[in-house]
Automatic annotation (TrEMBL):
<dbReference type="GO" id="GO:0004674">
    <property type="term" value="F:protein serine/threonine kinase activity"/>
</dbReference>
<keyword id="KW-0325">Glycoprotein</keyword>
<keyword id="KW-0472">Membrane</keyword>
<feature type="signal peptide">
    <location>
        <begin position="1"/>
        <end position="21"/>
    </location>
</feature>
<dbReference type="GO" id="GO:0005524">
    <property type="term" value="F:ATP binding"/>
</dbReference>
<keyword id="KW-0723">Serine/threonine-protein kinase</keyword>
<keyword id="KW-0067">ATP-binding</keyword>
<dbReference type="InterPro" id="IPR045272">
    <property type="entry name" value="ANXUR1/2-like"/>
</dbReference>
<dbReference type="GO" id="GO:0004714">
    <property type="term" value="F:transmembrane receptor protein tyrosine kinase activity"/>
</dbReference>
<dbReference type="InterPro" id="IPR024788">
    <property type="entry name" value="Malectin-like_Carb-bd_dom"/>
</dbReference>
<protein>
    <recommendedName>
        <fullName>Malectin-like domain-containing protein</fullName>
    </recommendedName>
</protein>
<dbReference type="GO" id="GO:0016020">
    <property type="term" value="C:membrane"/>
</dbReference>
<keyword id="KW-0418">Kinase</keyword>
<keyword id="KW-0808">Transferase</keyword>
<feature type="domain" description="Malectin-like">
    <location>
        <begin position="40"/>
        <end position="382"/>
    </location>
</feature>
<keyword id="KW-1133">Transmembrane helix</keyword>
<keyword id="KW-0547">Nucleotide-binding</keyword>
Length: 402
């Protein structure tokens, strides 16, 4: 594997007042209204309104239907779709040849979510899906196979891409060769605020530019980069469904059982009403700030321990985290006021496929009367490298690797 360096931004979300994890469907207008929201149900026609709160448009007969080489793609139901049961995982477009979707959208940064269901499809051998996905000049997935994915059978990959003025967002699916095939079950495109994850110079206050860990300057995440969402965690609570997000249909995964290595307590307050005086109210949904992990009331024990999370990540990255004076009350000036901090860390490829990223929060023992650490949420994104890649390089089909 080629030795290369990439960058990863890590977003930490704090609220110094507490917390709760009972979630209900929001009936009020969400804090953010997306200019563009396209949810394309591939391989089918007509509209669908599943419980996820999105209006899925069938691609057949829509203006988003793809162009392709040789016009040899097919539509197919997932043969195990009875076990899936939800749009957009029940149908797919598949082809042994390249095909491209084109989306006319407004200028600005977008979420691009690709939905996959690993299953048998009529006329296609399940183990032969091996393909690359590109968005303009960016390689989002390189020689990718859902059969080898560590995800569940139904999953999505989320990316952030900026679209320039008068530019059409194109997504191209390219099989490894004509012996293999590419497929897609669903495509979602959602506009986002210009300063949510990007920190384009001239568009954001310096205080919100991510800290570049172990480096002197801060790091601007420019529109010339693409991002891949690796983790988005509700640290102290359970799964937050996309319809419960702030209008961008982000999913926040439960983190306590799967990723928390250390002990901790889970303070909760169902009456907490976050005061959005420091950050926009669309940054994260209220339930993120209504649940957290802290170390607990035993200050003697806290002085001798950490809050630690372990996150499995691709190599090509070296995750390093440091914030030696994280004082949430000092940052916000009051209780119940949400805040977030961004960090960019340099990652080195050392020849392994994956590695555990350890995130440690440790209380300062020499200052103040409260010896504790707190975290409400974490987001981890991968930044595209100078070659515009987000994928691991030099992957080959399993049959050729033997």
């Amino acid at each position: 594997m080629k030795n290369h360096s990439l960058l990863t931004p890590i977003f930490f979300i704090f609220c110094p007042g507490f917390i709760f994890c009972h979630f209900t469907v929001a009936t009020s207008t969400p804090p953010y209204k997306a200019v563009d929201h396209i949810a394309l149900n591939c391989g089918t026609s007509g509209n669908s309104n599943p419980p996820d709160g999105r209006n899925w448009t069938g691609e057949i007969g829509s203006k988003y239907g793809p162009t392709e080489q040789n016009n040899k793609s097919i539509f197919s139901d997932a043969q195990s779709h009875s076990s899936v049961g939800t749009v957009p995982y029940t149908t797919a477009r598949l082809s042994h040849f390249q095909f491209t979707y084109a989306f006319p959208v407004a200028a600005g940064p977008k979420f691009v979510r690709l939905y996959f269901h690993s299953a048998s499809y009529s006329g296609y051998e399940k183990s032969k899906d091996f393909f690359t996905v590109k968005a303009g000049s960016f390689t989002l997935l390189g020689n990718f196979s859902t059969s080898d994915s560590t995800e569940s059978k139904s999953f999505f990959k989320e990316f952030c891409i900026n679209v320039e003025e008068n530019q059409i967002l194109k997504l191209t699916f390219i099989p490894f060769s004509s012996d293999y095939y590419a497929f897609i079950n669903g495509i979602e495109i959602v506009s986002m605020p210009i300063d949510l994850y990007y920190s384009q110079k001239g568009f954001i206050k310096y205080e919100w530019v991510p800290e570049y860990v172990a480096q002197a300057p801060r790091f601007y995440i420019n529109y010339s980069m693409a991002l891949e969402m690796v983790y988005r965690l509700n640290v102290g609570g359970s799964l937050i469904q996309p319809k419960e997000d702030t209008g961008m249909f982000r999913e926040w995964s439960e983190a306590i059982k799967k990723y928390l290595w250390s002990g901790g307590t889970i303070p909760r307050d169902p009456s907490l009403n976050p005061k959005y005086s420091k950050i926009p109210n669309y940054t994260a949904p209220d339930p993120i700030y209504q649940s957290a992990i802290t170390m607990g009331p035993n200050m003697t024990k806290n002085m001798q321990s950490n809050l630690t999370w372990g996150l499995r990540v691709d190599t090509g990255f070296k995750y390093l985290l440091a914030e030696d004076r994280a004082d949430v009350i000092l940052w916000t000036g009051s209780n119940d006021t949400p805040y977030y901090k961004d960090y960019v860390v340099m990652i080195q490829n050392k020849g392994e496929d994956t590695r555990q990223l350890s995130i440690d929060l440790q209380p300062r023992t020499s200052e103040g009367t409260l010896i504790d650490a707190i975290l409400n949420g974490v987001e981890v994104f991968k930044l595209s490298n100078p070659d515009s890649h987000l994928a691991r390089l030099h992957m080959v089909p399993p049959q050729l690797a033997q």
